[in-house]
Design goal:
By secondary structure, the chain is an alpha+beta fold. The protein has four helices and 18 strands. The longest helix is centred in the middle third of the chain and has 18 residues. The chain is globular.
């Protein structure tokens, strides 16, 4: 499988658009670790798969450079990100206001901030900051002339609204015992007390792809709106497996081992989940299906060529 490529270099090659990417391993080195994203704290004593902070640095050849990083984490506090950006500027020259760092929102990663009654892990936040800086340094070192392209595909079968509206005569009671709850998450499968979802889902899988001028893949930045699938801690959930499958597929298509970085960022998925309440039965329990979900999404990436010349 290979995908998307477009022209991104001006005819006279001056100025030259450049890109660099790097995926740094942020899997905890010491266990146990505290995991957030659940209603009660979870303590993990091993990793089921590796966690990464995946960096993409872009340079327009005119003096403007930006960094984008997607981290296998549930959520990260402003203080931690500001600290990391300050250290990244000292190490690479990347300005803090030109660096965007986001979380995949896996619910199976070490906690770096308090959430739902779970405190931050005592050691992991400092470890993560150090790794974010190291990853940015490596991505900057990898900057080289590049071209780029973009495309998208609709994947409605993998993301569904989880917030459903209840019938006026079937409303739910709030914590105070009053009949005020007209909409609620996860109503069950084909629940006759519900009318339908509170709104549509966002089924678009969008991608930006970057190659060297001679066609060697550098990175793909994908974005999809599905909250998370669910995986045992510690795990990157389907985001990491999507990246693993895509990198493997592209290396296989090229017939060589590539230093290629796949990135999956979280989209508009606050109320989206993998299971549809319209279904007659629930999907199989995790962790088995979430790897299948990731692989199917990776296989559905657009394969057509698209042009995306730089302005």
């Amino acid at each position: 499988m290979l995908l998307i490529i477009g022209a991104g270099v001006a005819a006279d090659a001056t100025p030259t658009f450049r890109a660099g990417a790097y995926a740094i391993d942020i899997t905890p080195e010491k266990f146990p670790v505290t995991v957030n994203g659940n209603f009660l704290p979870v303590i993990a004593d091993k990793a089921y798969d590796k966690l990464h902070a995946r960096w993409l640095v872009l340079d327009d050849g005119r003096g403007e450079r930006i960094g984008i990083c997607v981290v296998d984490s549930c959520l990260m506090p402003r203080e931690l990100l500001d600290e990391a950006k300050g250290l990244i500027e000292k190490a690479t020259g990347l300005r803090p206001d030109r660096v965007l760092i986001s979380a995949t929102h896996t619910h199976s990663a070490p906690s770096v901030m308090g959430c739902l009654g779970t405190d931050a892990d005592p050691a992991y936040p400092a470890f993560l900051v150090k790794k974010l800086v190291e990853g940015a340094q490596e991505a900057v070192k990898n900057i080289a002339p590049a071209r780029f392209g973009h495309a998208s595909v609709q994947l409605p079968e993998y993301t569904h609204c989880r917030q459903w509206i209840y019938r006026p005569d079937r409303m739910l009671r709030d914590p105070f015992g009053e009949l005020t709850v007209r909409a609620n998450m996860h109503p069950g499968y084909q629940n006759s007390s519900t009318i339908g979802p509170t709104g549509p889902s966002d089924p678009e899988l969008s991608v930006l792809a970057f190659q060297s001028p001679d066609g060697k893949p550098i990175a793909v930045l994908a974005n999809y709106s599905m909250h998370y699938f669910g995986a045992p801690a510690v795990s990157s959930d389907y985001y990491g497996l999507f990246c693993e499958k895509l990198a493997s597929s592209i290396s296989s298509a090229k017939g060589e081992q590539l230093h290629f970085v796949a990135i999956m960022s979280q989209g508009t998925s606050g109320d989206f989940c993998a299971a549809s309440s319209r279904s007659a039965r629930p999907p199989p329990p995790p962790p088995a299906p979430f790897s299948t979900c990731a692989r199917r999404i990776a296989r559905r990436l657009p394969r057509r060529r698209v042009a995306a010349p730089m302005a």
